[in-house]
Write a structure and sequence with these properties.
Elements: H1 2-5, H2 19-25, H3 42-57, H4 59-65, H5 68-74, H6 79-87, E1 101-106, E2 112-118, H7 133-143, H8 155-166, H9 177-191, H10 196-207, H11 211-227, H12 230-240, H13 250-258, H14 267-278, H15 280-283, H16 300-315, H17 321-329, H18 350-361, H19 370-379, E3 383-389, H20 390-403, E4 412-421, E5 427-432, E6 435-436, H21 440-443, E7 449-450, H22 473-482, E8 501-502, E9 510-511, H23 532-538, H24 541-549, H25 553-562, H26 588-599, E10 603-605, E11 610-614, E12 620-621, E13 628-630, H27 634-650, H28 654-658, E14 667-672, E15 679-684, E16 688-698, E17 707-708, E18 711-712, H29 716-732
Parallel strand pairs: 1-3, 6-7
Antiparallel strand pairs: 1-2, 3-11, 4-5, 4-16, 8-9, 10-13, 11-12, 14-15, 15-16, 17-18
GO biological process, one term: proteolysis
GO molecular function: penicillin binding; peptidoglycan glycosyltransferase activity; serine-type D-Ala-D-Ala carboxypeptidase activity
GO cellular component, one term: outer membrane-bounded periplasmic space
């Protein structure tokens, strides 16, 4: 049923079987496009001509009463035909046009920078004053010279087109601009339907060559004329029509074909674009090799139509004879300017762009489910202003490119840098060592490309995560301090294979002795009595296992979760003794968020990437907000800061600290997994947290045995992290983070 797929046709229309009616109105609609011609009987032709005469005579009634068309068409004044026309819907709900949506970053001066555009129809809706008068005059002169005189249906033009058809000529279009606008609006309503079968049925119904459609468009056109001013109808028409391919509306056409705006189009340019609308396949200007309409013949087909339009403009005194002569002498010289589409156009920011699109899929602002949200975003004309800091992003892209190659022989190499603003969760930088593509034909044939974002969780376009190694130890440190232990407290930390039983109030006591579990220290340290502070500075595995032995494994896992730490694959965190030293697989962004929480006096803010969303009407829409929760008390955070500052100045992260300029108060922690297959540097000032990591996407590779052009693979993190944090410190500054150290040593005994 047509009504099921066409919201503009709530009534099922009866079919008209009168042969005179069918033949009188069986021609194509709109812009001179051909419909179809069928063999006519003499009686049919006579009936059609009678209908045409009736139309011509009753043109005034057509506009004033909105009843005469049916009478005129049938040539029989019956109450039934009048009732049919009167019962048709006389309204047309004009919804938002499908427009491209944009994702922006922002320069330090506040100016927006386009990262990527997304569209199904490349359209930019513009106001009346932003359309060249040449475009308006060319459209009216060539398509509907009596546009400002009729009330929606041009009886004279319709009759002329029908006569040409009946006399054996090519099928002619007789629709007014308003009727063509109605048809385009109805097509638009079909195209936003998500079900392919329903969409096709809807499209067939609103484009079929039939008396039903013609009468419906007439009725709706009259209703449009009653509701909207002429200028607004013309403006809407110029914004909705297609110009070939995915180019819709005069503004996008001006940009695509001539690299200019609709307002700045010259007379010959305006006429050549209006020509395209008549038959986009025949007249479009982006096929330079075309034998009939290409650069070799001066775009002959388009020029012929363009020059006809110019003659009509002169005929109706819209241009002077001198303007006409100059315009027809002007060559057609398109400047095809491909619009950006998709995150691949965002360069090194493409993975951040991809992250934003996944956030939009999860945002109910755009629809009820993921598919509907992405579709609405691609059609809705939204402007998304993101949190990306281009200064930090450029630093991240530059240092990553300088220090880590996109590929390495025999190694599935990955590298990431991601930064988060402390206290807000705003993602400031995100990049990786691959070129972005979502095309399987590209990603499956070249290791330099990837559609997977190594920075983020799996459901955000990312991977299943990477082991963070010793950077994860900070959560055991947090639980240690939160349960009343101190930095100076010492634990049994000698390497061994009989650690005994670990407390776990979630799963019960855990014992690994039967497995022969015998963790070692990265540098082979064998100290038996490390303090919590010493274990942190030297990243001593057995020291932290000794701390966990005095804690509860489930509580350590829950403490990590309090810092918004979660498995990248969406699964629960492991809470074994081995997980204490970093075996959970996490997204780098997750670790950046957690370190920002430590620097924020123990309050962690979930990541956000969107500052503003503005719809096509300029209305601000709600954006996803960061959730800030207390992960540890400020007192506990102060103890963590004390230890982690000293990791920077006298521990395993001195290489990163030493080359960061300018220096502010900073905390940090390094991480190296078994066999040095993943190496991490995570740290923060009071303003910005950054993670830099070189990882094995699949398989194993010992980074200590691999050398890049920039130096050892294992130390690339210490070349990249300072490059980003130097820019962050210079731009954002930083204050001393509150810290609380070990109790002062007792004074020596008196003698």
């Amino acid at each position: 049923m047509e009504g099921a797929c066409n919201p503009l046709a709530p009534l099922r229309l009866p079919r008209f079987h009168d042969r005179r009616f069918v033949h009188a109105w069986n021609w194509g609609g709109g812009m001179g496009k051909s419909g179809f011609a069928e063999r006519r009987t003499a009686g049919g032709i006579i009936g059609g001509i009678l209908g045409l005469v009736a139309i011509s005579v009753s043109g005034g009634l057509l506009v004033g009463a909105a009843v005469t068309p049916v009478v005129a068409l049938t040539g029989i004044a019956t109450s039934d035909t009048i009732n049919v026309f009167e019962n048709l819907p006389n309204y047309l709900a004009i919804d938002r046009l499908s427009q491209k949506s944009n994702i922006y970053a922002t320069h330090s001066d506040g100016s927006p920078v386009l990262l990527a555009s997304f569209y199904e129809q490349n359209r930019i809706e513009v106001a009346w004053e932003n359309i060249s008068p040449y475009v308006k005059d060319a459209t009216i002169a060539s398509e509907d010279p009596r546009f400002y005189d009729h009330g929606g249906v041009d009886a004279q033009g319709t009759a002329r087109a029908a006569v040409k058809t009946f006399l054996g000529g090519e099928t002619q279009g007789g629709s007014s601009i308003t009727q063509q606008f109605v048809k385009n609006v109805r097509v638009q309503k079909c195209e936003v339907m998500t079900d392919q079968r329903i969409r096709q049925r809807c499209y067939d119904a609103v484009t079929e060559t039939s008396p039903d459609r013609k009468i419906k468009e007439m009725r709706l056109a009259i209703g449009v004329e009653k509701k909207y001013a002429k200028n607004d109808i013309l403006r809407q028409y110029l914004n909705i029509i297609g110009f070939g391919g995915t180019v819709y509306g005069i503004e996008a056409a001006a940009e695509y074909y001539y690299n200019t705006s609709a307002a700045a189009l010259t007379l010959p340019q305006a006429a050549s674009l209006v020509a395209i609308v008549n038959n986009p396949v025949k007249f479009q200007l982006d096929l330079p090799a075309s034998a009939t309409n290409g650069v070799a013949n001066g775009y002959a087909a388009n020029k012929e139509r363009r020059d006809y339009i110019l003659r009509e403009m002169q005929k109706y005194k819209k241009i002077t004879p001198a303007e006409y002569q100059a315009a027809i002498a002007a060559p057609i010289e398109p400047v095809i300017t491909e619009p950006s589409t998709g995150c691949q156009t965002a360069g090194g920011s493409a993975y951040f762009c991809d992250y934003v699109t996944h956030l939009l899929r999860n945002d109910p602002t755009f629809g009820e489910d993921e598919d509907a949200r992405l579709l609405n975003f691609r059609r809705g004309g939204f402007n998304i202003y993101t949190t990306l800091d281009l200064d930090l992003q450029n630093a991240a892209e530059t240092t990553l490119k300088a220090n880590v190659p996109m590929t390495y022989p025999g190694w599935d190499l990955g590298a990431v840098i991601t930064s988060v603003e402390v206290g807000t969760g705003r993602v400031l930088a995100m990049t990786q060592n691959k070129q972005y593509s979502q095309d399987p034909a590209v990603t499956e044939t070249s290791a330099t490309y990837s559609g997977i974002n190594y920075n983020t969780d799996y459901n955000e376009g990312g991977s299943s995560g990477f082991q963070p190694g010793s950077t994860y130890k900070v959560f055991t440190l947090a639980e240690w301090l939160a349960t009343g232990h101190r930095l100076e407290n010492r634990v049994a930390s000698a390497p061994r294979s009989n650690w005994g039983t670990f407390a776990d109030h979630c799963r019960g006591p855990q014992n690994y002795d039967s497995q022969g579990w015998n963790p070692r220290n990265d540098e082979g340290e064998s100290g038996a009595n490390y303090s919590a502070l010493e274990a942190t500075l030297g990243s001593i595995n057995t020291g932290f296992i000794g701390m966990a032995k005095q804690l509860d494994l489930c509580n350590i896992r829950q403490r990590a979760e309090a810092f918004d730490v979660h498995g990248a694959d969406g699964g629960p965190l492991e809470q074994t003794a081995a997980s204490v030293i970093g075996t959970n697989e996490l997204a780098p962004l997750t670790m950046a968020v957690a370190f920002a929480g430590i620097a924020n006096r123990g309050t962690t803010c979930s990541p956000i990437a969107i500052d503003r969303i503005v719809d096509s009407y300029g209305k601000e829409l709600p954006v996803p907000a960061s959730r800030c929760t207390e992960s540890v008390t400020p007192a506990v955070a102060a103890g963590m800061v004390f230890a982690m500052k000293r990791v920077m100045t006298g521990g395993t992260a001195t290489a990163s600290y030493g080359t960061t300029v300018p220096k502010v108060s900073m905390i940090g922690k390094t991480g190296t997994t078994d066999g040095a297959k993943d190496t991490w540097m995570a740290g923060a000032s009071s303003r910005v947290a950054t993670v830099a990591a070189v990882v094995s996407v699949t398989g194993d590779a010992n980074q200590r045995g691999i050398t890049f052009d920039s130096g050892s693979a294992a130390t690339a993190r210490h070349r990249m992290w300072p490059a980003v944090m130097s820019v962050a410190n210079a731009k954002y500054g930083g204050v001393d983070m509150p810290e609380s150290g070990p109790a002062p040593a007792p004074p020596p005994p008196a003698r």
